[in-house]
Amino acid sequence: MHLVYPAVLAVLLFCTGIYGVLARRNAILVLMSVELMLNAVNLNLVAFDVWLSRTAEEKLHSGQALTLFTIAIAAAEIGIGLAIVLAVYRARGTSDIDKLRDTAEGHETDGPDGTDGPNGNLGPDGNGGGNDRGNDNDNGPQPPTAKKAEATA
C-alpha cells in the first residue's frame, strides 16, 4: 500500500478536527475534535513507521511505540478534560464555550473608575461597595423594590 493513502486520510481527519475546534461551541465536542486531531497524528506515526521499516530494515518500530504513548496521553487528557467540563457545567449550568468566556472575561463593575466598588474591593456578597445590596452609597441596604424603581427611572 502506498504512503499517500494513510497520509491523505490523516490530513482529512486533522482538518476535520481543526474545524471542530474552531466552529463548535460545546466543550465536549471540542474535546472530541482534539481527539480526532490526535488520531490523525497516530495514523501518520504508524504509516511512516511501516514505510520506514520497509526501507531501513528496522525492527524497533519507534512510530508504533510513540503511538501507544500518544494514546495514553490522550486518554489522560480526555479524563481530565471531561472532569473539568462536568465541574464547570455543575457550577454554571452550561458547557457553551462562548458563555463561559463571557462570564470569565467581562463582569459588571460597580465603581466609577472600572473597579469593583470603592478601593477596587468586592463586598461580602460578591458585589462592589461592601453592603448587602451591592450599592455604592452608604445609606445601608435597600429593599429590592427600591432597587427596581431606581433601575426603571
Task: Chart the SSEs and their pairings.
Blueprint: H1 4-23, H2 27-56, H3 62-92, H4 97-105, H5 144-152
Helix pairs in contact: 1-2, 2-3
Describe this structure in words.
With 153 residues, the chain is mainly α. The chain is 65% helix and 0% strand. It has five helices and no strands. It has helices at residues 4-23, 27-56, 62-92, 97-105, 144-152. The mean pLDDT is 79.
Mean pLDDT: 79
Task: Label the structural class.
Answer: mainly alpha
Report the C-alpha radius of gyration, rounded: 26 Å
Helical proportion? 55-70%
The sequence of SSEs as H and E is HHHHH
Shape call? elongated
Defining traits:
65% helix, single chain, 0% strand, 153 residues, mainly alpha
Give a brief rundown of this model.
With 153 residues, the protein is mainly alpha-helical. The chain has five helices and no strands.
